[in-house]
Specification:
The complex is a heterodimer. Chain A has a single domain, classed as Orthogonal Bundle (MetI-like fold). Chain A has 13 helices and no strands. Chain A is flat, with a radius of gyration of 24 Å. In chain B, α6 packs parallel to α10, α6 packs antiparallel against α13 and α10 runs antiparallel to α13. The longest helix of chain B is centred in the middle third of the chain and has 32 residues. The chains are: A mainly alpha, B mainly alpha.
């Protein structure tokens, strides 16, 4: 009896959190799947319609366009964030005062809200009062202030610039930690062998920080695939719905057009896509004894 | 700023990196110049936003815009303070939601971390994986069912409801961090308490909690920042003007009354909204960076 209690004692501590996850994550996920099989709307409905919403989704060109746009955004921004982040990590990894201060400044935008940063950049990009435009004109890159949000490509570029500013420090800091955790002697050995700096980066630092790079890339890709705020605030999906991301399109369907059942089916599809990356993430981050 | 380095680094291990960077004089100057250039670029948006917020409203909407304010005025801030229900209402909403998020997160994650770290149990890793489920199922997908359920329970448009959603976001990180915190406490201390005849609950309170305090502070810190900044669920759940949180209020400041943007007020709002996060980051950097490195990737 006492032994049985002993055995379950630890479980009792874990139980509240498990109940919370069951009630507010797993159960709603089941609900989401059920919803996706109905024609529920915020205005009523709720008839079971089988897989009709999924069939509709596959034929919905707007959804595919939103998904394709999200993938395009992810493909463009990931190399910028990872490559740029690694370059900044190489720059700021040594513990010298100036480099540490630089590291702290690069990381600063990571802690501010994406809503605030998107509104800040929305202002900087404005054709009339935007200082980013003025800087580009003053240094001669532009002839006159550009209109950023009336063309899809320009809007995408603007969002990529603003998000790069906001989150490049995220990867950088993880890479700095990865580089610094590499045993010093290995670096020393490379020095004796007479390799130059870039060779050491290529043959020693990069391979040894491969796991961190892979994990950070996965986190970054998942984040980009779920992008919403930056487009909601900066482009509003314009022009003509060309900059809707997947989450944005789901939001439009569910909470603007009130098509909850259809929105649920789109959410399930998106979750399945993201699951590929997040499963890899959890597997890779599996706690091994060596850590 | 130096804490940022100290927390993450074993100095000796980083030695070769300094050397590797090549420390000949001209190269050192070049690296220094690059550091200053990068820092300038990263700080510029925040500095320009702050400068715009203290311009007079006329100057804030001038075309072309000025870099350095030619006038000084706090009118933009005054406008934000008096916006609709008053800034106090929105800051109050955001703070209340954040405090509730911190409370729920800690109430769930501290015992869970303790249980996972300090007890033998069957299916332990299975429970752990379930607690990480919010990492696998994006919360963006859950908002519709949660909204329907919360509406029935009277939790839509409530601080508590929004705090629960924010807790979903933070829970995997929090449990992970608390488990690691409790695991790093030496076993001898626990043995001593057992000999004294303390129950596990007493041991948790008297021995583990004080030692796990840095972890607890970190969990609270991240819960605050995540909740304060969160946008999408606040947009969906808090659909009454008076229940807006700060990020949602900012978007409605931009939309303006007659379709024209009050640029000065918008930048004043941006500055006010990022201030708590920046202050926390600067003051509690050690906790922040340690937590970030501990929880983000491992």
């Amino acid at each position: 009896m006492i032994r049985a209690l002993r055995k379950s004692e630890g479980f009792l501590y874990v139980l509240p959190a498990l109940v919370f996850v069951a009630a507010f994550v797993l159960y709603p996920f089941g609900q989401l799947f059920y919803l996706s099989l109905t024609d529920t709307s915020l205005l009523g409905g709720g008839e079971f319609v089988g897989f009709e919403n999924y069939i509709k989704a596959f034929e919905d060109r707007s959804f595919w366009r939103a998904l394709e746009f999200t993938v395009r955004y992810t493909i463009f921004i990931t190399p910028v964030l990872m490559g740029g982040g690694y370059a900044l990590a190489l720059l700021t990894a040594p513990n010298r005062p100036l480099r540490q201060i630089t590291r702290g400044i690069i990381f600063l935008p990571v802690v501010i809200g994406i809503g605030s940063s998107s509104l800040l950049w929305f202002w900087l990009f404005d054709q009339q009062v935007g200082l980013f435009n003025r800087i580009l004109v003053d240094i001669g890159i532009l002839q006159q202030p550009a209109v950023w949000f009336t063309k899809a490509d320009m809007g995408l570029l603007a969002v990529i610039i603003s998000i790069t500013w906001k989150v490049i420090g995220f990867g950088m800091l993880l890479f700095v930690a990865g580089i610094q955790s590499i045993n010093g002697e290995i670096g020393e050995a490379a020095l004796i062998d007479g390799g130059n700096y870039w060779q050491r980066v290529w043959y020693i630092l990069l391979p040894l920080s491969l796991r961190v790079i892979l994990l950070t890339t996965l986190i970054s890709v998942i984040g980009s695939m779920l992008a919403f705020e930056q487009f909601y605030i900066m482009t509003g999906g314009n022009p003509r719905g060309q900059t809707f991301t997947s989450v944005y399109w789901i939001y439009q369907n569910s909470f603007i057009s009130f098509k909850l059942g259809y929105g649920a089916a789109l959410s399930i599809i998106l979750t399945a896509i993201v699951l590929v990356f997040s499963t890899l993430q959890v597997l890779l981050s599996n706690r091994s004894p060596s850590q | 700023m130096t804490a940022l380095a100290e927390a993450s680094v074993r100095p000796a291990a980083a030695e070769h990196v300094s050397r590797a960077a090549g420390e000949s004089r001209p190269l050192g100057y070049l690296v220094g110049a690059v550091c200053i250039a990068v820092s300038t670029i990263m700080l510029a948006p925040l500095v320009l936003s702050f400068l715009a917020s203290i311009k007079s409203p006329d100057e804030a909407r001038a075309v072309p815009p000025t870099y350095i304010p030619q006038s000084f005025s706090l009118e933009s801030y005054a406008k934000v303070f008096e916006y609709q229900a008053g800034l106090g209402t929105y800051v109050g909403n955001s703070l209340l939601v954040a405090v509730l998020t911190i409370a729920i997160c800690l109430a769930l994650a501290v015992p869970a971390g303790y249980g996972l770290a300090r007890f033998k149990m069957r299916f332990k890793e299975l429970w752990f994986i379930i607690l990480l489920a919010p990492l696998m199922i994006p919360y963006q997908a859950l908002l519709t069912p949660l909204y329907l359920t919360f509406s029935k329970m009277g939790l839509a448009n409530s601080h508590l409801g929004l705090a629960m959603v924010h807790t979903i976001l933070q829970l995997p990180f929090s449990v992970y961090l608390m488990r690691n915190s409790f695991e790093s406490i030496p076993r001898e201390l626990e043995e001593a308490a057992k000999v004294d005849g303390s129950t596990s609950w007493q041991t948790l309170r008297s021995i583990f909690l004080p030692l796990a305090l840095p972890g607890i502070v970190t969990v609270g810190l991240f819960a605050f920042i995540a909740s304060w900044n969160e946008f999408l669920s606040a947009l969906i759940f808090m659909n009454k003007e008076t229940s807006f949180t700060v990020p949602i209020m900012l978007v409605s400041v931009r939309t303006g009354r007659l379709g024209s943007v009050d640029w000065g007020a918008l930048q004043a709002g941006v500055i006010l909204s990022i201030l708590p996060c920046v202050l926390i980051y600067l003051l509690l950097q050690r906790y922040y960076v340690a937590g970030f490195l501990n929880g983000a990737v491992k």
